[in-house]
């Protein structure tokens, strides 16, 4: 299979972990006889240096010509946020690319590997079977894309953010979540704040209508404050979580840390035509960039999700997941996993072990 992949490595640890993902993809293409053609493009602070723009048109054009976007991470040090290179870098690049390609569906996956259970901040007794949760987050509506106002009203400072949802927006993500649930344990928990918000009342109404189209999938509603609590109290009750943009942002960060390291959560953003962007859920971590210590697992798993969700290369995706699991079971890990692995390796060296385990 021939595929063109736009490579947007971005900033911080982005380029290093991207190199790991590319090496793994190359190993897969050698073994399984595919040809992946990579076209690199700038995004984030890296793009700003050349274009004074965090998401230049050249980059958008490269993405448009590609079959998929493999994205690293963007953003600079917290202490340098007033520098124009970093000011609003994440929103200018990530939110803009979501809008440009109509990526309304976001899927993030949290997994706890059996011998990394001790890394989880949760008590072992709460996760007897590890953890495997998928969160489906709507990505183009809600308070993110409603009108934002920061100014004055009646002589004093005033701000407002408008949350909006259309029926079509909710229908699209809800149907996707139920489709995903059908491939898993057929259980969806829809999370909202229907006791307060109108957008949530509409959300709940539409999700219950979609649930009728999927009688084989069990569906329940949960308020977001309760969900935040249930995730640390009894995470095993969840399989697919379906939620709106802002709640999904918050809950996916909570979920990511349950597996012990934010460096292990892959994510995908899709539009209605199936075109997608594949990226680690974590940030650019500038404090550890360039030191060969970053965990490449989330980036590699994002590439593996690209193979399974977009190119339908299930065997190849499974080979990657299996290789990562085996490498961890062999006792190898990166610095963030030091409390649970026997041998701490650098990003490159860990990636080499993963590649050795690709069957
Ligand atoms: C995420 C990020 C973004 C979001 C930021 C960088 C705008 O936190 O992808 O979760 O809030 O969606
Ligand atoms: Mg977030």
Describe what you observe in this structure.
The chain is an alpha/beta fold. The protein folds into two domains: 1-104 and 262-359, Isopropylmalate Dehydrogenase (3-Layer(aba) Sandwich), CATH 3.40.718.10; 121-258, Isopropylmalate Dehydrogenase, CATH 3.40.718. Helix content is 40%, strand content 22%. The protein is built from eleven helices and 14 strands. It has helices at 14-32, 45-51, 57-64, 89-100, 167-182, 198-213, 224-233, 245-258, 297-310, 314-329, 347-356; strands spanning 2-10, 35-40, 68-73, 105-112, 131-138, 148-153, 156-161, 187-192, 218-223, 240-243, 266-270, 276-280, 332-333, 343-344. The chain has a ten-stranded mixed sheet with strand order 2-1-3-12-11-4-5-10-8-9, with helices on both faces. A two-stranded antiparallel sheet has the order 6-7. The protein has a two-stranded parallel sheet with strand order 13-14. The protein is globular.
Summarize the structure.
This protein has eleven helices and 14 strands. With 359 residues, it is an alpha/beta fold.
Topology (elements, then pairings):
Blueprint: E1 2-10, H1 14-32, E2 35-40, H2 45-51, H3 57-64, E3 68-73, H4 89-100, E4 105-112, E5 131-138, E6 148-153, E7 156-161, H5 167-182, E8 187-192, H6 198-213, E9 218-223, H7 224-233, E10 240-243, H8 245-258, E11 266-270, E12 276-280, H9 297-310, H10 314-329, E13 332-333, E14 343-344, H11 347-356
Parallel strand pairs: 1-2, 1-3, 3-12, 5-10, 8-9, 8-10, 13-14
Antiparallel strand pairs: 4-5, 4-11, 6-7, 11-12
Helix pairs in contact: 1-9, 1-11, 5-6, 7-8, 9-10, 10-11
This protein binds 3-isopropylmalic acid (IPM) and magnesium ion.
The site of 3-isopropylmalic acid (IPM) has 5 residues, from helix 4.
């Amino acid at each position: 299979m021939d595929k063109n992949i736009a490579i947007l490595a971005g900033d911080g640890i982005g380029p290093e972990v991207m190199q790991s993902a590319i090496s793994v993809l190359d190993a897969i293409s050698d073994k399984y006889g595919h040809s992946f053609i990579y076209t690199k493009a700038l995004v984030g602070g890296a793009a700003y240096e050349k274009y004074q723009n965090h998401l230049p048109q050249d980059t958008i054009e490269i993405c448009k010509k590609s079959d998929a976007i493999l994205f690293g991470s963007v953003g600079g040090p917290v202490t340098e946020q007033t520098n124009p290179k970093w000011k609003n870098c994440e929103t200018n690049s990530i939110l803009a690319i979501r809008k440009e390609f109509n990526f309304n569906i976001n899927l993030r996956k949290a997994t706890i590997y059996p011998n990394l259970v001790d890394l989880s901040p949760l008590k072992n007794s709460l996760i007897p079977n590890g953890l495997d949760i998928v969160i489906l987050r709507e990505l183009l509506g809600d308070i993110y894309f409603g009108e934002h106002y920061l100014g004055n009203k009646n002589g004093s400072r005033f701000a407002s953010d408008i949350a909006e949802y259309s029926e079509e927006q909710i229908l699209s993500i809800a149907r996707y979540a139920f489709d995903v649930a059908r491939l898993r344990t057929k259980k969806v928990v829809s999370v909202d704040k229907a006791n307060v918000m109108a957008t949530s009342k509409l959300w709940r109404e539409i999700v219950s209508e979609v649930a009728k189209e999927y009688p084989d999938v069990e569906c329940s509603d949960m308020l977001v404050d309760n969900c935040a609590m249930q995730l640390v109290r009894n995470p095993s009750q969840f399989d697919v979580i379906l939620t709106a943009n802002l709640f999904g942002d918050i809950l996916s960060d909570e979920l990511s840390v349950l597996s012990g390291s934010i460096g292990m959560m892959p994510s995908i953003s899709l539009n209605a035509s199936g075109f997608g962007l594949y990226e680690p859920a974590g940030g650019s971590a500038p404090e550890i960039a360039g030191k060969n210590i970053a965990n490449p697992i989330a980036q590699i798993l994002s590439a593996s999700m690209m193979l399974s969700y977009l190119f339908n290369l299930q065997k190849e995706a499974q080979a990657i997941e299996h290789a990562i699991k085996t490498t961890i079971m062999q006792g190898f890990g990166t610095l963030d996993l030091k409390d649970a692995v026997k041998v701490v390796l650098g990003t490159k060296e860990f990636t080499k072990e993963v590649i050795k385990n690709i069957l």
